[in-house]
Amino acid sequence: MTTTSKLFDSIRISSNRKKKVEPEVPQCQWEGCTKPGTHRAPAGRDHEGQYLHFCLEHVREYNKNFNYFTGLKDDEIAKFQKDALTGHRPTWKSGVNAAAAKPAADFSRIRSGSAAYQNRVNDPLHMFSQQSRAASAPRKLKTLEARAFMTLGLEANATSRDIKAKYKALVKLHHPDANGGDRSSEDRLREVLQAYNLLKNAGFC
């Protein structure tokens, strides 16, 4: 049979390819609606990972009125929100687990049959005690910091409370509003402001 034959045109070759199966769209689960449920919505608390299927109109309505905490009391909601900060994982306050907080034994000093097994970690070089002394030692002031203390009329060992109290008193004293509009001490006020901001940025107050 040639390709020009009339019979050639009448031959139909059936394809072995399987037709692509389109996924079935569930019906909208809104009561009384027969439209396709093309949109998913969460089923709610205690049903994580499960979804309801609605049409566009009803999924909007469902989401507008959806409340994850429906049925919970206020204290239960507060507890849930607090636990959510840690991903609902258990936490412990520092020092609660006494067994974990005990210092480890100094195994490098263990001798068979001796009481050294019960020894705790010691500080033979006094490194930690030196650090604690250094932390309590007065901080050495830089030139600008020392000048700022002098501007405020304070000693170098003044506390944060002392610095703030002195600052408020000087501002009240030199501010034009407190002096009936007199601007003669504006330069002094500017010095006080600069000194206080310097000490604040340096961490003194």
TrEMBL record:
Keywords: Chaperone. PROSITE patterns: DNAJ_2 (PS50076). InterPro entries: Apopto_cytoskel_mod, DnaJ_domain, J_dom_sf. The keyword Transferase does not apply. The keyword Cytoplasm does not apply. This is DnaJ domain-containing protein. Residues 147-204 form the J domain. The lineage of its organism: Bacteria, Pseudomonadati, Pseudomonadota, Alphaproteobacteria, Hyphomicrobiales. Pfam families: DnaJ.
